[in-house]
Write a structure and sequence with these properties.
The chain is an alpha+beta fold. The protein has two domains: 182 residues, Alpha-Beta Plaits; 87 residues, Chromosomal Replication Initiator Protein Dnaa, Chain: A (Orthogonal Bundle), CATH 1.10.1750. Helix content is 51%, strand content 12%. The chain contains 17 helices and seven strands. Strands 2-3-1-4-7-5-6 form a seven-stranded mixed beta sheet, with helices on both faces. The longest helix is centred in the first third of the chain and has 19 residues.
């Protein structure tokens, strides 16, 4: 089942976190970290994504980034897949390296940008990897080191951070170090990794009041910002979607029901519907499934094609053929309760 899209646009700011599966280490030594940083540099150059803050921890990574014309998912997929392939080869292991999907939170940059910079760069201090802010100055696996050393990590967007923190007659670096030595407001720090609002089929809810067991089913986006920013993101996400967001869990259930219905209707297995075979009954079942997935459930034809194991154009043509068939209206009445 294709996963729901992530809302993104050029110049959107995201806090991205990727963790090792079952809390396993994704970096075992400095060679692993150096290879990841080199890969990060290559991904930045190829996608024009801007990395403002970052930190490599033993079993996870933090990135504060601003997307360019390349969507977020393409950048992160290229980065994490490349590291997983490298890591598995080096350590002769197989299987997934990262836990589920990476986590991303849309950030209201003018309000939370510098708080996130400090939170991300201070991770090695808070977890005891380094003993102090002074030791962090010499630790090479965060963007903090890059900010203090102009000749290191030229791919890092240092200017955005230093210009944001500059004040008075102090140098940018002095202002940045003074900020880093400050303390976080009570209650703010936990929000930097969870977000302030969750958005999904149940609308907008404060993250602190959400039922964590149900949040994965009901909410699709995490937002770090005020309520006006959350409303802006929700309006952007629901545009053209009849006022509600797609929810992966319930959508998956409906896809299963649709495939079961087509299988029963034509007396063939679901495997045959997805086989690409062009016998009459199989073709009819595929046309029916394509139409319902696209025009009733609202999936795009790329997703329809992946589900049915055909091209997006094949799914489009199949759906259009069914829409013109004599049985279309009758079957739609039968399916009224299936997808609503």
């Amino acid at each position: 089942m294709p996963r729901c899209y992530r809302i993104d646009w050029e110049n959107a700011v995201h806090h991205v976190m990727a963790r090792g599966i079952e809390k396993c280490d994704i970096f075992r030594d400095d060679h692993d970290r150096a290879c990841f940083v080199k890969r990060l540099e290559e991904c930045v150059k190829h996608t024009h994504t801007r990395i403002m803050a970052w930190a490599l921890m033993p079993n996870h990574v933090h990135l504060l980034l601003r997307t360019g014309q390349t969507p977020l998912y393409k950048f992160v997929h290229k980065l994490l897949t490349g590291h997983a392939v490298y890591f598995n080869r080096r350590y002769d292991r197989v299987g997934h390296l990262f836990q589920n999907r990476y986590k991303s939170i849309l950030v209201q940059s003018e309000k939370y940008f510098m708080k996130l910079v400090r939170y991300i760069h201070m991770n090695p201090v808070k977890t005891g990897i380094v003993s102090s802010i002074e030791a962090l100055n010499e630790y090479p696996w965060t963007g903090h080191f890059g900010l203090l050393n102009a000749n290191r990590y030229r791919w890092q967007d240092k200017e955005s951070v230093l210009q944001e923190i500059s004040s008075g007659n102090r140098t940018m670096i002095s202002s940045y170090l003074e900020f880093m030595n400050g303390t976080e407001e009570d209650g703010t720090e936990s929000l930097l990794e969870t977000g302030t609002f969750l958005l999904g089929s149940h609308g907008i809810n404060r993250a602190i009041s959400a039922n964590t067991e149900q949040a994965g089913r009901k909410y699709q986006f995490s937002v770090l910002g005020d309520i006006e920013y959350a409303k802006f993101i929700y309006d952007k996400a629901t545009k053209g979607r009849k006022g509600s967001l797609r929810v992966r869990a319930s959508e998956h259930e409906k896809v299963e029901l649709i495939l079961d219905y087509a299988s029963r209707k034509w007396g063939i297995s679901r495997r045959l519907i997805r086989s690409g075979t062009r016998f009459n009954k199989i073709t009819k079942a595929r046309e029916l499934a394509s139409f319902i997935l696209a025009y009733c459930l609202g999936l795009n034809f790329v997703d329809c094609g992946r589900i049915l194991n055909v091209t997006s154009e094949g799914a489009r043509l199949a759906a259009n053929r069914f829409s013109k068939s004599d049985e279309c209206e009758t079957i739609l009445r039968e399916l009224d309760n299936l997808v609503n």
